[in-house]
Write a structure and sequence with these properties.
With 352 residues, this protein is of the alpha+beta class. The chain is built from ten helices and 15 strands. It has one domain: Jelly Rolls. The strands form three sheets. The protein has an eight-stranded mixed sheet with strand order 2-3-11-8-13-6-5-4. A five-stranded mixed sheet has the order 1-10-9-12-7, with no helix packed on it. Helix 3 packs across helix 6 and helix 4 crosses helix 6. Keywords: Iron, Metal-binding, Oxidoreductase.
């Protein structure tokens, strides 16, 4: 072995990809079996669909167009907590390049990926399966890769090109998020740079999360990801052509059908805290299928790790007392890994 070459580590837990590709697999292991049907209660009302935000209007120099876009953003955040962003300026080729770079990582050997497996939650690069294999009684039908991109950029030396595309993609998404947070600040009645300054976004935590959901021989008994909300302020998602993401809205589950080349954005737990519950993080889940592999790439955008996230004082009065107490962002992330995965574990820690 050449000097300085990291020794490849055997995987600590079999990847779902390797399970799925096993010729002997005809049913899923019992550790992956969910007792409830993940496909039940799916709404199909075409009149009730995820809102669409035209990013070009949000950044327009025309005050009337921008005002309307901020109103649209307010309704989307208040009613859904999810919205699709069109005309965002991120090149289609870059979005597809990011997906393919992540696919290249999952196609590495189990030994190559094992170098990053089993790391703690704040490790800059880690991969694995499920969420927390030491605590989860039922495992999820997915493999993941998580890479810290900001405030310090980290990347992988393989597959080739991953570092370059992830850097360009993260920078483009950061600009989109900056404008969205400005619009959200205005929609809350705050100064447009309020969230950026209060959350110290210049040192904010930006993490790439790639999720791979391989074909499953018994999709009705497995779950890619169970109902959950996301940490942070905003999550931005792109995916390959395979669906599976479902959003809960007014007690019903809706399939997410993305507009081609759009970005899907959802509110995170810490934006719910900052808005004092005016904008709520929304439960979502991922179901799997028998034939196709789903691959999604998320960029989570949060405050700096040492920022105390609490309701904005401007949003508190006698009629709206604080619904959450403040906690450092890093503390909530660390605590979330010591509890079993459940729907809103982070918010449960800070709810008054």
């Amino acid at each position: 072995m050449a000097p300085g070459t990291p020794e490849l580590q055997p995987p600590k837990f079999p990847s779902v990809k390797s399970l799925s590709e096993s010729s002997a697999l005809t049913s899923i292991p019992s550790s992956y079996t969910f007792t409830t049907d993940p496909n039940q209660h799916i709404a199909s009302d075409p009149q009730d669909s995820i809102p669409v935000i035209d990013f070009s209007l949000l950044t327009s120099g025309n005050p009337d167009q921008r005002s309307k876009a901020i109103q649209d953003l307010h309704r989307a955040c208040e009613k859904w907590g999810f919205f699709m962003v069109i005309n965002h300026g991120v090149a289609e080729s870059l979005m597809k390049g990011m997906i393919e770079a992540c696919r290249g990582f999952f196609d590495l050997t189990e030994e190559e990926k094992g170098e990053f497996e089993g790391k703690p939650v704040l490790a800059p690069i880690r991969c694995g399966t499920s969420s927390n294999t030491s605590l989860d009684k039922i495992l999820f039908w997915r493999d993941f890769l998580k890479v810290f991109l900001h405030p310090q950029f980290h990347s992988l030396n393989k597959p080739p090109g991953f570092s370059e595309v992830s850097l360009e993609y993260s920078q483009r998404i950061k600009k989109v998020v900056e404008e969205l947070l400005k619009g959200i600040s205005k929609s809350l009645g705050l100064e447009e740079w309020y969230i950026d300054k209060a959350m110290n976004m210049s040192s904010g935590l930006q993490v790439l999360v790639a999720n791979l959901y391989p074909p499953c021989p018994q999709p009705e008994h497995a779950m890619g990801l169970p109902p959950h909300s996301d940490y942070g302020l905003l999550t931005v998602l792109t995916q390959n052509e395979v669906g599976g993401l479902q959003v809960q809205h007014q007690g019903k589950w809706f399939n997410v059908n993305l507009i081609p080349n759009s970005l899907l954005v959802n509110i995170g737990d810490h934006l719910e805290v900052l808005s004092n519950g005016k904008y709520k993080s929304v439960l979502h889940r991922v179901v799997v299928n028998r034939k196709a592999t789903r691959l999604s790439v998320l960029i989570t955008n949060g405050p700096s790790l040492d920022t105390v996230v609490a309701p904005a004082p401007e949003l508190i009065d006698e009629s709206h007392p604080p619904a959450y107490f403040g906690m450092k962002f890093q503390e909530t992330l660390t605590l979330s890994q010591t509890n079993k995965h459940h729907e809103k574990s982070i918010l449960d820690q800070v709810r008054i």
